[in-house]
Specification:
The structure holds two protein chains of two kinds.
Chain A: E1 4-6, E2 10-13, E3 19-21, E4 23-25, E5 31-38, E6 42-51, E7 54-57, E8 64-70, E9 73-78, E10 87-95, E11 98-101, E12 105-109
Parallel strand pairs in A: 2-12
Antiparallel strand pairs in A: 1-4, 3-9, 5-6, 5-10, 6-7, 8-9, 10-11, 10-12
Chain B: E1 5-7, E2 10-14, E3 19-24, E4 30-38, E5 45-50, E6 56-59, E7 62-67, E8 72-77, E9 86-94, E10 102-103, E11 107-112
The chains are: A mainly beta, B mainly beta.
């Protein structure tokens, strides 16, 4: 059964902390994505990667960075967490447009 | 930024009712449209992949149609059941960037028993 695994289901962090959200896929997909989902706004793309060490900004990259050192792992980094980054974060990988999603990480920044 | 809109944003129906909702997307440079179903505390799950104008797909009580010329897709649920309660997302893939799909805001469906 193919999988996208996100390291944490729920996370609470303090304002100003550096936060790492990890995502691992076992399907050998080249494309990986980080989204955030907020009520009424749908899934908004933060960053995506189409190959190891390659990354592109999505629609809302401010306050975030990413790392893709290995094909199977795509990390989202909040350099200095702020309360407006409280959200549901969803990782996905895709092959030819067919997306497989992780189960999400609900991050609360206090 | 390309716009993909879904309506209504949320919907409550009674068990047994049939319902439908809409996904609107750019009508130019169309490559594919995907529908996903996202239940609370689970991952979004692919329902349909639609690529041709006039496509109609069906999975049990759920079906979808596609009109690429006017830029919309309908999702229908016949005889809604409480287990159909979920957020339904559509995702538009344009021919210029087929690996990066644009998601709609979703329709949150609640089926009341």
């Amino acid at each position: 059964d193919v999988k996208v695994t996100q390291s944490s289901r729920y996370l609470v962090k303090r304002t100003g902390e550096k936060v790492f959200l990890e995502c691992v896929q076992d399907m050998d997909h080249e494309n990986m994505f980080w989204y955030r989902q907020d009520p009424g706004l749908g899934l908004r793309l933060i960053y995506f990667s189409y190959d190891v060490k390659m990354k592109e900004k999505g629609d809302i990259p401010e306050g975030y960075s990413v790392s893709r050192e290995k094909k199977e792992r795509f990390s989202l980094i909040l350099e200095s967490a702020s309360t407006n980054q409280t959200s549901m974060y969803l990782c996905a990988s895709s092959l030819q447009g067919y997306y497989t999603f992780g189960s999400g990480t609900r991050l609360t920044v206090v | 930024i390309l716009n993909v809109e879904q309506s209504p944003q949320s919907l409550h129906v009674q068990e047994g009712d049939s319902t439908n909702f809409t996904c609107s997307f750019p009508s130019s440079n169309f490559y594919a449209l995907h529908w996903y179903r996202w239940e609370t505390a689970k991952s979004p799950e692919a329902l349909f992949v639609m690529t041709l104008n006039g496509d109609e797909k069906k999975k049990g009580r759920i079906s979808a149609t596609l009109n690429t010329k006017e830029g919309y897709s309908y999702l229908y649920i016949k005889g809604s059941q409480p287990e159909d309660s979920a957020t339904y997302l559509c995702a538009f893939g344009g021919s210029s960037g087929t690996y990066k799909y644009i998601f709609g805001t979703g329709t949150r469906l609640k089926v009341l028993a």
